[in-house]
Amino acid sequence: MSTTTPTSTTVYTASATSWGGRSGKVVTSDNKLQLDLSIPAEMGGDNGPGTNPEQLFASGWAACFHNALKGVARQQKLDVADSAVTLTVNLIGGMATGFDFEVTIEAQLPGIDEATAQAALEAAHQVCPYSRATRGNIAVNLVVVSDED
Predict the structure, then answer these.
(1) Which residue windows are coiled coil (predicted)?
(2) pTM for this entry
C-alpha cells in the first residue's frame, strides 16, 4: 500500500461509491456524477443502457491526458487549440488468468508535424497522473493521428 509522505500536499480528493458492481450504479460524493452501470454483451451482460468501468476509466484518462498535453504544449509554445485525445481501453485475459488492460492513446494535433507531436505525447505521458499511476502495469501505445487520417 502506498501512502503520502509528510511533504505531500493533497490538491484535490475525489470519491465515488458503487452499489451492485458492474450491473449497479456509481455516485460521486458530491452527487455531480450519478450513473447506471451495465455489463457489455461482449462480457456476457445484457448490454443495458448504463456505462461501464472501462468507459469511465477511458474517459477520465483521456481528459487528464489531454490536459497534460495542453500543459506540455504551452511550455513548448505549440498551438493545440484544435487538438483531440482519444483513449481506447481493451480488457484482455480471462477469469483463469486474470484481466488486464491494454491502452491506446491517440492524439490529433492539427498543424503540428508528426515528430514534434510524438515528442509532445511522450512528454505528456510522463506527467499525466493516470499515466504515472499505471506506468509499468499497462501496455500503452501512443499514436499521433495525422491531419490526413
Answers:
(1) none
(2) 0.90
